[in-house]
Write a structure and sequence with these properties.
It contains four helices and no strands. The protein is mostly helical and 122 residues long.
Amino acid sequence: MFNSFKEMPIWQEAMAMAETIFNCTESLPRKEDYGFISQIRRSCLSISANIAEAFGRYHSANKINFYYIARGSLTETQSHLEYGKRIDYLNSAIVSESDKKLIALYNDINKVIVTLKNYGSE
């Protein structure tokens, strides 16, 4: 059992992804500060934020809901990455590597959801 959400591998992975997204959007045109840059950074940061919020919830149903929200933010981030690649804002190799990490994180979030559902039904 974890004493803090910061000890959770899925939170650590999500936070690392948020750092990656921040860094790869740092050199984008300033005209995108309140558009694309803001959207992708917020959706990606929302993944770790919702994992942390799930950690702080007591009931399994509440926890599961926040993991679902984290998963939704993750797929939103994937969509933004694809858009950034298509308009040549983001490097294809970075997008591909990020997408692989996001798919792994998606699967890990699903495992937590299944575990909580099984635990909650005992």
